[in-house]
């Protein structure tokens, strides 16, 4: 049984005429969403727009989020497939890499992004000129919607799709940075989302009376909480266009006019509002649940929000993409000083969160730090088409020798405070948290060393200045290297400082001495 689709049907029966999703130019009721879901699924199952869908078929989206895109993604789910949104802002080389990993039979796009998509599909991988070309079917979202409106759902096909569905099927794949230069596709199963959203909406009392303002793009897992909280409770999800986050007055008007009650935003988005004095201009007075995640919330920005919305509930959420959104939460119950750290908090029910030291022994006191490890049904299925990386990150719990218990080693370092709350401290390895994104420094290094005239490259991260530093050797001028990286990497991964060296400092083992680089 497809539990996600069953939830949609249930909510559509309860609230058929209520708006399910809306953006500035379109909206869809729960009943209409279910109807379009069945129609689009019929097109996919019949093979009317691409090769016929089967259980576990991927569909890529190369477009910004929108109400029609929501209809299409649920059509994909209804047909037994899973969806993956490809960031339209990333360079062609990286988008080509993502789509190559997915190898989808169909890509759904729109007029605004069709030309760029054609360029990606015709991209020649310079590092592997013999790599196979991508030949998916490409369909415009408007054409898909128009085709769906002209047919009736095929109940026999839909019933067959239901019979072949099971709750460990992928629901979506989101891509994160990879140390080898190839982004990693985190595949999250339906059951993980069902378990998490049931608990998430219960803990924070999200109901059919709520209006959720969706900030995150659909290629970012923060959006999962918005989309499925709406489906599970009957809350309306109001999609905020990306460009509103460069126009504070437009954003605050939008929140106020739509009577938003709930936001589940990245910290960077909340900081944008406070930095740009958006709350000075207009305060969305219906807003009563304010949740944030992605990086450590600066207390001074949090206090700005609390100044204008003192009665709202504020929640810090923690968790990497690999554990289905979040594994811990902390409800703020007092004012925090500017130099205080807001805890990551306590685990959601049915999620096991614990610390292991360097010897894989448990850390329980307040004086010791350890790697944050997570277990439970929340865990992702693994990295799509990458068994090697999956086996490295998703491992047997070393504390359990009695039965198979898979855990995810986050690479984050944490400790406990006096109240037993988890405190995030830092990263363990060369993965960093920058601008709300988890970035493998190795991916930047690989991209840099692929540029002609670069012999070696090494990255460090300046935590205080929130800056990625790139050091390299070779004859290439710094300006040329930076320009090349801007074509290879998303803007948030482009180093803030690039320095050419005559030679790399080495430690006693002959490896690049990152500590020496950090002091330069």
How would you describe this structure in keywords?
520 residues; Rossmann fold; Luciferase, domain 3; GMP Synthetase, Chain A, domain 3; 9-stranded mixed beta sheet
Protein described:
The chain is an alpha/beta fold and 520 residues long. The N and C termini lie far apart (58 Å). The chain has 17 helices and 27 strands. Helices cover 33% and strands 26% of the residues. Among the domains are: 16-166, Rossmann fold (3-Layer(aba) Sandwich); 319-427, Roll (Luciferase, domain 3); 435-518, GMP Synthetase, Chain A, domain 3 (2-Layer Sandwich). The strands form 6 sheets. It has a 9-stranded mixed beta sheet. Strands 16, 17, 18, 20, 21 and 22 form a 6-stranded antiparallel beta sheet that branches. The chain has a 4-stranded parallel beta sheet with strand order 4-3-5-6. Helix 1 crosses helix 9, helix 2 (30-46) packs across helix 7 (155-164) and helix 4 crosses helix 5. The protein is globular.
Q: Care to give the gist of this entry?
A:
This protein is of the alpha/beta class and 520 residues long.
Helix-strand blueprint:
Layout: H1 3-14, E1 19-23, E2 26-29, H2 30-46, E3 58-62, H3 67-78, E4 82-85, H4 92-102, E5 106-109, H5 111-121, E6 137-140, H6 141-149, H7 155-164, E7 170-176, E8 184-189, H8 190-203, E9 211-214, H9 222-233, E10 236-239, H10 248-257, E11 262-266, H11 267-275, H12 278-281, E12 289-293, H13 299-308, E13 313-318, E14 328-331, E15 346-347, E16 351-356, E17 362-363, E18 370-376, E19 382-383, H14 387-393, E20 394-396, E21 406-416, E22 422-427, E23 431-434, E24 437-440, H15 441-449, E25 454-462, E26 467-474, H16 478-488, E27 497-500, H17 514-518
Parallel strand pairs: 1-10, 3-4, 3-5, 5-6, 9-10, 9-11, 11-12, 12-13, 26-27
Antiparallel strand pairs: 1-2, 7-8, 8-19, 13-14, 14-15, 16-17, 16-18, 18-21, 20-21, 21-22, 23-24, 25-26
Helix pairs in contact: 1-2, 1-9, 2-3, 2-6, 2-7, 3-6, 4-5, 8-9, 11-13
